[in-house]
Each structure stands twice: as C-alpha cells, then as structure tokens.
From TrEMBL, chain B:
Its main location: membrane. The lineage of its organism: Bacteria, Bacillati, Actinomycetota, Actinomycetes, Pseudonocardiales. This is PDGLE domain-containing protein. InterPro entries: PDGLE_dom. The chain crosses the membrane at residues 12-32, 89-111. Keywords: Cell membrane, Membrane, Transmembrane, Transmembrane helix. It is found in: Cell membrane. Residues 13-113 form the PDGLE domain.
Length: 248, 120
C-alpha cells in the first residue's frame, strides 16, 4: 500500500551514523531529566491534567499532514504550542512522550533516531518557541490578537530552527546521499512553508484556549494571578511569587 | 485519586479538549495529505519511488536509501493502521490519543506538586 510509507513523520534509523545518534541520545536523556526536575514546579492539580491533554492533542494534530507544495506536506511539530500552554519544561516532556508513543507503538521515527528526534522537536523546538514567545510576551499580554500573533511567530520560528537541528545532525554524522548545501536549502525552504501551517494551528489553538480558560495559558500567568494558596514552607522563590500575587 | 474535584467549568473544558483531540485523530486523519512531509521530501530528494510486485524501492541517489526498516515495523499499529488494514487510520489515531493521554497524564499527575491538604 502506498500509504504505508507516507505516514512516517520523523527521522528513521540510519540517516545519521551510530556515534551521532548516540551522542544526541545522551543529550536527549540529559535534557529530559532536567526537564523532569524543573517541570514539577509548573505542575499542580489543575495544570497536570491540562498537560496530559495537550500531549494527546499534539499527538492527534501531528497526524494531520497538510499540503505545502505539489507532492509535499507538513505537519505540526508542536514546540511553541506546548511551551505557550504548559511551559517549556513540561512542554518538552509532552513532545518527548508523543515521540516515544509514535516510535514504540506506531513504528514512526526510528528507535536509534529517537534521541535526534527528541533533541530537534522536544528540546530545540520547544525552547526556541518559548524564547520567542517570552520575547513577545508584552504583546501577548496586551490583547487576544497580540497573543495569537505571538503564538504564530513563535511557532513559525520553532519549526524553522528545529529543521536546522536536523541539518546540524546531518552535518555532524550524516549517512550521505545529498550534499549539505542541498539539505540546508531544502530543509529551510520547506520548513518556512510548514512553519506557516504550524503558526496557523498554534495561533488557533492558543487563541481558543485563551478565550475559554486564559488561566490555563502558561505564557500569560502572572497577568491575572490565580487564586491559589501556596504552602508557607516552600522555597523562597515560590514564596515571593505568592506574595506578588497576594497584595496584602 | 484524591484530588479535590475541579470545578465544573474546568471539567467541561478538559472534556471538550479531549473530544477535539479524538475528532482530529479519529476523523480528520482520513483527510490528511498523503504526500511525504518536509523531512521525507528532503531525504527522498534525488530518488524516485518505484513500485513493483516486490514492494517499493528507491532508484537514484538520496539520503533515504540509508534508512533502515523500523525495528518495530511488524507491530500491530505500525504506520498508524490496525494490523495494516486499509481505512483504520482513525481507529489507530483514537488508540494513540488515549494511550498518549494515559502516559502523559499519569506522568504529570505523579510529578505534580501536591497541595498541602493532600499531604496529611
């Protein structure tokens, strides 16, 4: 069936050599351990279910390849989407879980390529998207249109930069078959187009969540402090945050 | 789970969010573009996919020729189908959404910071 080869969305095994795959596997593990530690402060009884649903939503939307050129398609990577909704630490875990489910259950994305895929989409994509979103946060806080525009730009940039992470891996240990210049030019060109689709999906999703539950948009937190009591024995950082939220 | 019940509005939002994810994976997936994505387009550059009785193979020179078969290619949900059945992408998608939700939701629930009253 022709369709068999088509719904493969991530790097297969063999595109980069063993040492490169191993090195990026190590980076992925270290990054995710750090994310797991830092994610805790962003997770509570309200945001944990939200993060679970965001992860499931990214899995679903990644299945939807949209046309970008005759004979070529693109799909959501989700970096800026998760970073804006649940924060970068939780967000990188979201994308990593999606990639693991896809690789282990759906044979999409090679097992030895899991490290490179996680670095590209769960670490680079998420943190680049987050950095852009934070830079534009004043705009995002000003109005709904500002938030939607921020989501679009962050998603566009996360897509293009994540695609460059593949070019880097190919430059370090690519298996060959095309020149680095060709890979670089094609990856950028195609992912500029995919980035527009990523931007539209991210803007629509963030806009929809913000219209119903702005308190669940991580990027906006702090504008309207959630009514939430924090434990007095917590770290100083948490205490000072709680104090900011409770002028008394 | 002993979490205090979130208010009804929160539950409604979460149910709606899950419904959208299920609809996307279960129904919209049938309308996804069948063409290779950005990365695959690049790795296939220089090759032609030739179909023969023995299956597909690549002719020419391209990165994808170095790709090895997935170690789990024989798994029941491989390539977003159920046992390779035609028209099962939606079923595979719904399974994927639910599995992802359980894995991610479970992990995040375990990692979350408990409210003080949960700790006593």
């Amino acid at each position: 069936m022709v369709g068999d080869t088509v719904l493969a969305m991530h790097m297969s095994d063999g595109l980069v050599n063993g040492p490169t795959a191993g090195a990026f596997g190590l980076i992925a593990v270290l990054g995710l351990v750090l994310a797991g530690v830092r994610a805790r402060s962003d997770l509570d009884d309200r945001t944990a279910p939200m993060a679970g649903l965001v992860t499931a939503f990214v899995f679903a939307v990644q299945m939807i390849n949209f046309p970008i050129l005759p004979g070529a398609s693109g799909h959501l990577l989700g970096g800026a989407l998760v970073a804006i909704l649940v924060g970068p630490w939780v967000g990188s875990l979201c994308i990593a879980i999606v990639l693991c489910v896809q690789a282990l259950l759906f044979a999409d994305g090679g097992l030895t390529a899991l490290g490179t895929n996680i670095v590209n989409m769960a670490l680079v994509g998420v943190f680049v998207g987050y950095a852009v979103a934070v830079a534009l946060r004043p705009l995002a806080r000003r109005s709904r249109a500002g938030l939607v525009a921020t989501a679009f730009v962050a998603a566009f940039v996360n897509t293009v930069v994540a695609s460059l992470a593949f070019v880097l891996e190919y430059a370090i240990g690519g298996a060959g078959g095309a020149s680095l210049g060709t890979v670089f030019t094609l990856m950028i060109g195609l992912h500029v187009l995919i980035g527009i689709g990523e931007g539209v999906i991210t803007a629509a999703t963030v806009g929809a969540v913000a219209s119903v539950r702005p308190d669940l948009v991580h990027l906006l937190r702090g504008t309207a402090p959630p009514l939430q009591l924090r434990r007095a024995g917590d770290t100083g950082v948490t205490e000072s945050r709680a104090t900011e939220g409770n002028p008394s | 789970m002993t979490a205090p019940a979130p208010n009804r509005r929160a539950t409604g939002f979460f149910v709606g969010f899950l419904a959208v994810a299920l609809l996307v994976a279960g129904a919209l997936s049938y309308f996804a573009s069948p063409h290779p994505d950005g990365l695959d387009t690049v790795t296939l550059q220089g090759c032609q996919v030739v179909e023969s009785d023995a299956g597909e193979h690549l002719e020419g020179t391209c990165i994808a020729q170095n790709a090895t078969d997935h170690s789990l290619a024989a798994s029941p949900l491989a390539d977003y189908s159920v046992e390779g059945g035609e028209g099962t992408v939606g079923v595979a998608g719904v399974i994927g959404v639910l599995v992802t939700l359980v894995v991610a939701g479970g992990l995040f629930w375990v990692l979350r910071r408990r409210r003080p009253k949960d700790q006593h």
